[in-house]
Amino acid sequence: MQKRRNSFIVLLIMTCHLCQAQKQELIANYITTYKDIAIAEMKRTGVPASITLAQGIHESGAGAGKLVLASNNHFGIKCKSNWTGEFVRHDDDAKGECFRKYTLAEESYKDHSDFLKNGQRYAFLFSLDPTDYAGWANGLKQAGYATNPKYPQVLIKLIEDYNLQEYTMTALGRKPGGEGIVVAEKPSMAETIPITAGETELKQVVVYPAGEFKINDTQVVFVKKGLSFLGIAKQYDIDLSKIFEFNEKARVDFADKDQLIYLQRKRKTGAHEFHIVQPGETIYSIAQQEGIRMENLRELNWLKENDEPAIGETLNMRSKSTSIPKLTVKDNYSLHPATGKKGIH
């Protein structure tokens, strides 16, 4: 009897090891399949690749769950009132809940990034350092992404067990392992790439809180187009000239568009280590978004006064960059091949 019991225990242990090995292989294959999408989405929206992959693994059962097989929905995103696409019914917190359905997995990844980037309750996550995966994991639970009380621990364990932070570092243009960026000698002339008018018009939708809040530990408000700057100065008891000084703006009477207006002088370094340039962004808009002075942002990245970084380039926010980012060149306004000076040639 004892011998039979021991044999059963040995068999059970072997079965568990086999199941664990199969699970690890399934997850490894999932990571190989979707890591490039996660990296691309991080460059596009700023959602850390490590978080995207960890959520994808968990929510989809590493691509083997019933929901993902029926819908290509890798992140368990429910329909919500604004969803007009296809859907499937799936038992989750309640029976037969509505979940979004996608034609391709790539669509699910893109929708997941947009869901976080454009969702007001997730806006605070984008003030975190993209390498702070623990902060992101806890923040997702805090914002109500999942009901599982151990959701942050699940994501953190996946990231650490499968070294998913490597893909965040890749998206940031850094080597895995947390190697710092060292100050370099001044690099050679920046490479330039052309952009089209259509690219400059694309914008990321960001929802800011009402009233005063902080970006990079600096007081700021979000104002609507047409608002009087004199009215802003009176409301917050600040000299009108300081409003334009703090925001590095020419003096005008009214806001020409919806925009961030700082009530204190911006910082010399950013809260984040890096910023990936998005469509429609300029040095000025990045400086406002990150709460950093333009002159310091340019200095950290070897940029001259009229230089504008190209879409997808990584800008340093806290330390001197080792290279000049690629620059945009509009229409016929380019660098002369002999002199290196800008002009129409």
Report on the structure:
The longest helix has 44 residues, at 2-45. The strands form five sheets. This protein has a three-stranded antiparallel sheet with strand order 4-5-6. The protein has a two-stranded antiparallel sheet with strand order 1-2. A hairpin with a 6-residue loop joins strand 10 and strand 11. It is α+β, with helices and mostly antiparallel strands. The protein has helices at residues 2-45, 49-60, 66-71, 105-118, 133-142, 151-161, 165-171, 197-201, 229-235, 240-246, 283-290, 294-300, and strands at residues 87-90, 97-100, 192-194, 213-215, 218-223, 259-262, 274-276, 314-316, 327-329, 333-335, 342-344. The chain is globular. The protein has twelve helices and eleven strands.
Question: What is this structure, in a nutshell?
Answer:
The protein has helices at 2-45, 49-60, 66-71, 105-118, 133-142, 151-161, 165-171, 197-201, 229-235, 240-246, 283-290, 294-300, and strands spanning 87-90, 97-100, 192-194, 213-215, 218-223, 259-262, 274-276, 314-316, 327-329, 333-335, 342-344.
